[in-house]
Amino acid sequence: MTVVVDEQVRTEGVTLMESEASEAAEAVRRLIHANAPAFAQLARMLRANPPTRVVTCARGSSDHAATYGKYLIETMLGIPVASAAPSVASVFSAPVAPGAALCIAVSQSGRSPDLLAAVKSHQEAGAHVLALVNDESSPLAAMADTCIGLKAGPERSVAATKSYIAALAAFAALVAEWARDDALGAALARLPDQLEIASAFDWSGGVRMLRDANNLFVIGRGYGFGIAQEAALKLKETCGLHAEAFSAAEVRHGPMAIVGEGFPILAFATSDMAGDSVREAAAEFEARGARVCLADARAEGACLLPALLDHPALEPILIIQSFYHMANALALARGHDPDRPLHLKKVTETR
User: Fold this and answer.
1) What is the pLDDT of residues 240-250, one digit of tens each?
2) For residue 334, what are the CA distances in angstroms to 62, 275, 327?
3) Cβ partners under 8 Å of residue 107, min gap 6
4) Which residues, 6+ apart, have CB-to-CB distance to 136 below 8 Å?
5) Which 3 state secondary structure label does DSSP give 51?
6) What span, in angstroms and rounded, lies between the C-alpha atoms of 300 and 40?
7) 3-state secondary structure of 181
8) Which of 22, 82, 130, 301 is most buried (most C-beta within 10 Å)?
9) What are the tens digits of pLDDT across the range 108-156?
10) Cβ contacts of residue 167 below 8 Å, gap of 6+?
């Protein structure tokens, strides 16, 4: 039996968010296979003509993917990465200083007017525009000097899942080629299979802990900070739950003052030194009486939220895959329909 949801069709008992999150592994397989020549060609060009700066243009989930890309590029290539404010072009019509730059635009739809205006301004200043876009018929795809199709297929759920994961994988594929990082490349090759494992993990403990929550912090660090941002957004969108994302370093400043007995914390720890910082913050919060829900790649499935141990740069992709299924279940447990978030639509046409 099927159910119609605002002209979208889903199988009874399975939301669009749930079914599309389950398609992420196959989307990443398509992405890697279809774009391998393009990644290799772009990497050769970037090595021959290194940009002095990288600028990302994105909003929402795509901007959280760009945060992940920033950490990859800065740690593995040493090139500064900044997030462009689209309103600088669309509202203020301010010019961009010329220079050797790479502009990476990330979008599911490729149609938001302010995003297109920002990309155009950087392109006119001489930047090479790389589009990571799911809709390859979009204006963004047509504008780009290099277009990488995310290959996620139609995404009908308002809450992006598989296209976000594909965008993370695209950043990893770009950096693996650009930096000639064999270890990252090998991890990327096994990523689709790992995603299938992560998709089946039982995160029901998180649903039980957060079902009656009103506010919480989501913490990560390094490669894991972008997924902390994404998780906080999804909890707001789909669960009606006020969630704020913090770096494990920043949360020790002002935000820590409101954490006390019973305050919920969702923490994502990778197996590297950045993950150590998350583990330390989680332990400190727990000592204050906070309710901590930790996904820890180093624990190899031993904690409340099981996570896979892999290349530290790819562990966040595996963690967010598991999180999406938890967020869907949490939304339903809280009486929300994750496919119909209040006041939201799929394409946000900000000007």
Assistant:
1) 999 999 999 98
2) 26, 30, 10
3) 58, 62, 115, 131, 132, 133, 134, 135, 138, 140
4) 147, 149
5) coil
6) 33
7) coil
8) 130
9) 999 999 999 999 999 999 999 999 999 999 999 999 999 999 999 999 9
10) 61, 62, 65, 106, 132, 150
- Give the separation between CA 110 and CA 93, rounded to whole angstroms: 20
Q: How far is it, in rounded angstroms, from Cα 332 to Cα 10?
A: 15
User: How far is 177 from 317, CA to CA, in rounded Å?
Assistant: 18
Hey, CA dihedral for 173, 202, 252, 274, is it positive or negative?
Answer: negative
Nearest alpha-carbon partner for 69 in 191, 203, 166: 166
Average pLDDT over residues 285-305: 88
Q: Where are the alpha helices (DSSP H) in the chain?
A: 16-21, 24-48, 60-76, 87-90, 113-124, 139-143, 162-178, 182-199, 204-210, 225-239, 273-287, 315-333
Amino acid at site 60: G
Report whether pLDDT(5) > 60.
no
Tens digit of pLDDT for each residue in 84-115? 988 887 888 888 888 899 999 999 999 999 99
CA angle, residues 322, 332, 225, in degrees to nearest 5:
35
Q: Cβ(71)–Cβ(222) under 8 Å?
A: yes
Kindly give, in sequence order, each residue whose CB lies less than 8 Å from that of residue 283, ignoring residues fewer than 6 positions away. none
Residue 281, phi then psi, degrees to nearest 5:
-65, -40
| The CA-based dihedral angle spanning residues 305, 308, 312, 313, taken in that order and rounded to the nearest 10 degrees | -90
What's the distance, CA 210 to chain centroid? Answer: 21
